[in-house]
């Protein structure tokens, strides 16, 4: 075959591949948003779900998702920041650093169901909490920690060397330099990374099945005492998140309007993830403009 | 604190040997971040030990035979004579992983080449965000679309129930496509420019350059991309569980329903009693998942040690 003909055929194939990938995404998003959008109304988003009858909403699930996400980030951000600072600033080449790197790699590649099972062993059975929001949030912390450490480490490493050296040359201690020079400069990328990681946590289900459970008790949204069992803020109650809800209604659900509920929930999940993505880019660039001199 | 520093005399502000509080803070800070780094190690060790000991319990204290577990194809833990053959799930996991990699690898690497070689200017602007959005779609949503679109479609066109190895393979290949594409793109764009230019200079066409020069040069990293995708496919639970059909027997064709390690765990973990034999064998299945993810990491380490560029 003529090599020019072969070249043209190959080019066409590459175009087709690219078109396929774009079509897949457009098809997926289009399908979810087209089917789900009509189901989205305030009532669906705020009313509690029903286990047998049609017409249930996703109010509790939505609240649970955001609450677990919030708790997870409360645990992950400081730990990830600490790990990232250590890896970027203090770690010297050697066995300990290698070991930490290997562990980050292992944790990052563990299947989320395995992390969920570890959570079941550790935060459900060993602690005696049963299925709880706290257990779910801790399992998701294990799931999210390696991502957060990498984000923080990369963000700190990309800060210009001059800035750090200038600070050290003034006689400022290393720790103070990190706190006052490096962290502010790395803040926009850390924030962007944290929001992107939030999107991942928000959609995670496998790690929550056996840690936060598949049920939500009746919640009284006027009761904000975190120690009361009907309070939404109680961290020791079981909590089904939105992503888990989609799985549960499809595989074990008894409600007749499975499709409607799943369509609507998937649309909410996808739209939330899209918002997280856009927010990450937008906030990142806004904060970057605010705290640096660059235009 | 700023005000205080300013009102201090110059001699006090200078960093001297006696500046104890700054040095103490330095130490405290260092130990604080070291502690968070060590927490990562302890979490990894805890996961390995906990899952390892729990996974071996079925063999050690319940007397399940390891040989039967790894070689028998009969799984029925609730029967009068319980059978614990995990082969259908192990094979199912490997089958969907390899099959989905067979689809995702050419598509992903093709997409990467499109972005870096064919249309570097506008192709990247379109495909990059597409890939990032695909990563962001939660796995249950993939499973739900698979369940509500793909399964009925397969039922009508290919026949059978629709719930099949084929459905699992298609859903997984879309899920791992972004992983493969983004790493393959990094691999292609990190190749030195000289490679392309010298190939074009001796009169090779673009396809010849890609096929004979660039792909072989980037091979170790391209393989890393595929292995990482396979690792993700192997551990994926819910999306596969929703479309694969979940039977306990070996599939005889690609259109037959099947099961994987993750799907059987997902289905049965919730309603078996903690500590029972039935439950313990599920932990043994999880141990296989853990061991496999270690093997994937070793494979990736080996591949990255062979990187040339």
From TrEMBL, chain A:
<dbReference type="GO" id="GO:0035435">
    <property type="term" value="P:phosphate ion transmembrane transport"/>
</dbReference>
<keyword id="KW-1133">Transmembrane helix</keyword>
<feature type="transmembrane region" description="Helical">
    <location>
        <begin position="129"/>
        <end position="149"/>
    </location>
</feature>
<feature type="transmembrane region" description="Helical">
    <location>
        <begin position="99"/>
        <end position="123"/>
    </location>
</feature>
<keyword id="KW-0472">Membrane</keyword>
<feature type="transmembrane region" description="Helical">
    <location>
        <begin position="181"/>
        <end position="202"/>
    </location>
</feature>
<feature type="domain" description="ABC transmembrane type-1">
    <location>
        <begin position="62"/>
        <end position="280"/>
    </location>
</feature>
<feature type="transmembrane region" description="Helical">
    <location>
        <begin position="12"/>
        <end position="34"/>
    </location>
</feature>
<dbReference type="GO" id="GO:0005886">
    <property type="term" value="C:plasma membrane"/>
</dbReference>
<dbReference type="Pfam" id="PF00528">
    <property type="entry name" value="BPD_transp_1"/>
</dbReference>
<dbReference type="InterPro" id="IPR005672">
    <property type="entry name" value="Phosphate_PstA"/>
</dbReference>
<dbReference type="InterPro" id="IPR000515">
    <property type="entry name" value="MetI-like"/>
</dbReference>
<comment type="similarity">
    <text>Belongs to the binding-protein-dependent transport system permease family. CysTW subfamily.</text>
</comment>
<keyword id="KW-0812">Transmembrane</keyword>
<keyword id="KW-1003">Cell membrane</keyword>
<keyword id="KW-0813">Transport</keyword>
<dbReference type="InterPro" id="IPR035906">
    <property type="entry name" value="MetI-like_sf"/>
</dbReference>
<dbReference type="GO" id="GO:0005315">
    <property type="term" value="F:phosphate transmembrane transporter activity"/>
</dbReference>
<protein>
    <recommendedName>
        <fullName>Phosphate transport system permease protein PstA</fullName>
    </recommendedName>
</protein>
<feature type="transmembrane region" description="Helical">
    <location>
        <begin position="267"/>
        <end position="287"/>
    </location>
</feature>
<feature type="transmembrane region" description="Helical">
    <location>
        <begin position="66"/>
        <end position="87"/>
    </location>
</feature>
UniProtKB/TrEMBL annotation, chain B:
<feature type="domain" description="ABC transmembrane type-1">
    <location>
        <begin position="90"/>
        <end position="300"/>
    </location>
</feature>
<feature type="transmembrane region" description="Helical">
    <location>
        <begin position="209"/>
        <end position="231"/>
    </location>
</feature>
<keyword id="KW-0472">Membrane</keyword>
<dbReference type="InterPro" id="IPR000515">
    <property type="entry name" value="MetI-like"/>
</dbReference>
<dbReference type="GO" id="GO:0005315">
    <property type="term" value="F:phosphate transmembrane transporter activity"/>
</dbReference>
<keyword id="KW-0812">Transmembrane</keyword>
<dbReference type="InterPro" id="IPR011864">
    <property type="entry name" value="Phosphate_PstC"/>
</dbReference>
<dbReference type="GO" id="GO:0005886">
    <property type="term" value="C:plasma membrane"/>
</dbReference>
<feature type="transmembrane region" description="Helical">
    <location>
        <begin position="281"/>
        <end position="303"/>
    </location>
</feature>
<keyword id="KW-0813">Transport</keyword>
<keyword id="KW-1133">Transmembrane helix</keyword>
<feature type="transmembrane region" description="Helical">
    <location>
        <begin position="163"/>
        <end position="188"/>
    </location>
</feature>
<dbReference type="GO" id="GO:0006817">
    <property type="term" value="P:phosphate ion transport"/>
</dbReference>
<feature type="transmembrane region" description="Helical">
    <location>
        <begin position="130"/>
        <end position="151"/>
    </location>
</feature>
<dbReference type="InterPro" id="IPR051124">
    <property type="entry name" value="Phosphate_Transport_Permease"/>
</dbReference>
<dbReference type="InterPro" id="IPR035906">
    <property type="entry name" value="MetI-like_sf"/>
</dbReference>
<dbReference type="Pfam" id="PF00528">
    <property type="entry name" value="BPD_transp_1"/>
</dbReference>
<protein>
    <recommendedName>
        <fullName>Phosphate transport system permease protein</fullName>
    </recommendedName>
</protein>
<keyword id="KW-1003">Cell membrane</keyword>
<feature type="transmembrane region" description="Helical">
    <location>
        <begin position="31"/>
        <end position="51"/>
    </location>
</feature>
<feature type="transmembrane region" description="Helical">
    <location>
        <begin position="83"/>
        <end position="109"/>
    </location>
</feature>
<comment type="similarity">
    <text>Belongs to the binding-protein-dependent transport system permease family. CysTW subfamily.</text>
</comment>
